[in-house]
Amino acid sequence: MDKRDYYEVLGVSKDASMADIKSAFRRLAKQYHPDVNKEPDAEKKFKEIQEAYAVLSDENRRKQYDQFGHAAFDGGATGSGFGGFDASGFDFSDIFDSIFGNSFGFGGSSRSTNRSTRGNDKLMRIRLSFEEAIYGCEKTINIDVDTTCPECDGKGGFHEETCDKCHGSGTVSTEQRTLFGTFITKNTCPKCGGKRRIYQDKCNKCHGKGVIRENKNLAVTIPKGVDNGYRLKLSGKGDSGSNGGPNGDLYLEFIVDKHKFFIREGDDIYLEVPLTVTEAILGCKKEIPTLYGNINLTIPSGSNSGDKQRIKGKGVDNANSYRNGDMYIILKVKTPKKISRTQKELLQKLNETDLEDDEIKIFNNYVHKN
Questions:
Q1: What are 318-333's pLDDT values in tens digits?
Q2: Backbone angles phi, psi at 31, to 5 degrees
């Protein structure tokens, strides 16, 4: 049977680097794997790709192939289905795991769990009053976190010894027969869980987990100007890491109560100020509240409902921005529902005078013409 050149099979040049060869194999294996590709010749192409990679990824085999071609492997076993080089027994498990995530039955994960692992992040929602969010405050929060067991220092047990099943490697190798031949796969050691070591005595405090659930009171400084939905990151205050890994982070998300009068939009504050009819007509000095104390505001004569005044810098002093927001005063003229006889007489006399401004006159003339 005529066999294609291995370099041609993988689509690489004869001076290709090992990285190029591995990259080509990953791409083609993913393309022609029979569980993915349902074309009739997919299995045949997949075996051909495996054989080419098994030869070219090994420096000694590649030298032999470059010197003698396929003849270098004539007389070998024929388990590959192509004659010549036998790919049976070649360990593809690591690269298959990286390509398929071990979803095609090429053995379990071969990674050891003895490495350092960062702890989990945590999220906690905190309710704040409007004033606490504006001015900042100190809070003591109560939280449950996983912390390193103080009894065993996070090891999970005592009297450490090398795992006798995996001999300290964290993995065990098994031989697996598949449609494509016999493969050696590596799986996490079931006895030590990939930690490479076992303990004669399990820790009674953490029950071998290395961490315990602990309830803590944590003092937190809430910066001024936080808003609804804002998240504050507290580095290293999450769950503890394993095997010496760093702690996760704690995120505080704020739920801010509404104020009776102030309305916040970003760093700007809006305040609706009610006026009597006479205050709106004659104008006045009006004492109004701000976030930083009361001020006297000049209301011009002839003011109407909806008129807006801006007070620069009287908005939110946000710790995360470079300037204060502004405050906007929205005027709202209130018409009295109940008036005394004297007030009614005064209003009737006022009504007898010409109160029409240009806008009213233009409107009335339009109505009378129609």
A1: 888 778 899 999 999 9
A2: -75, -40
